[in-house]
TrEMBL record:
Alphabetized Pfam families for the sequence: EFP, EFP_N, Elong-fact-P_C
Protein family according to the UniProt entry: Belongs to the elongation factor P family.
Main subcellular location: cytoplasm
Record-annotated membrane-spanning stretches: none
Keyword Protein biosynthesis listed: yes
Name of the encoding gene: efp
Domain annotation Elongation factor P C-terminal: ranges: 130-185
Organism phylogeny: Bacteria, Pseudomonadati, Bacteroidota, Flavobacteriia, Flavobacteriales
Protein name (database record): Elongation factor P
Classification via SMART domains: EFP, Elong-fact-P_C
Ranges where the Translation elongation factor P/YeiP central domain occurs: 67-122
Length: 186
């Protein structure tokens, strides 16, 4: 058992008969009344996000997890196959477990958190950004850098991303995996 002072981003806890991962937290000490911790929790079983407030000193049940590096191999329908880089064991995970499955490129390394009690994978953490090549977009026009206008572009994984007008086919772009938005041209 731990208390609210142990809360941090990425911590996995048992709450309401489910396992949640803490995405955000904020310790609040109002001028009047007791302190509390405002959290945003993401369910690792169904992906739902909920806001919850814990009073200061509240006991929370922490789930022990191990983090391993896995390499993404291929997708087969709704299943994504990964290989452990240390033991070379392969596992398959459903598409719903992944935060941004459309941005996952074959051969890319991800961090998978595994529950030590049940040996079941809990969550998949991708890199903060990925670099992908644009496979299709409307041609860019010289001088279209002054406005904030965007156009849709398809990247090598099949995902569609809104990009600035000056991006052309064959360009490599950096995409934020959390939001799925264009960051910069590489």
């Amino acid at each position: 058992m731990a208390s609210t002072s142990d809360i941090r981003n990425g911590l996995c806890i048992k709450y309401n008969h489910d396992i949640y991962k803490i995405i955000e937290f904020l310790h609040v000490k109002p001028g009047k009344g007791p302190a509390f911790v405002r959290t945003k929790l993401k369910s690792l079983t169904n992906g739902k996000v909920l806001d919850n407030t814990f009073s200061a000193g509240h006991k929370i049940d922490v789930v022990r997890v191990e983090t391993h590096t896995f390499q993404y191999l291929y997708a087969e329908g709704q299943d994504f196959h990964f290989m452990n880089n240390e033991t070379f064991e392969q596992i398959s995970l459903n598409r719903d477990v992944l935060d941004a499955p459309d941005l996952l490129k074959e051969g890319e390394n991800v961090m998978i958190q595994i529950n030590t009690e049940t040996d079941l994978p809990l969550s998949v953490d991708m890199a903060a950004s990925v670099i992908l090549e644009v496979t299709y977009t409307e041609p860019g026009v010289k001088g279209n850098t002054a406005t904030n206008a965007t156009k849709p572009a398809t990247v090598e994984t099949g995902a569609s991303v809104n990009v600035p007008l000056f991006i052309n086919e064959g360009d490599k772009i950096k995409i934020d995996t959390a939001s799925g938005k264009y960051m910069e041209r590489v």
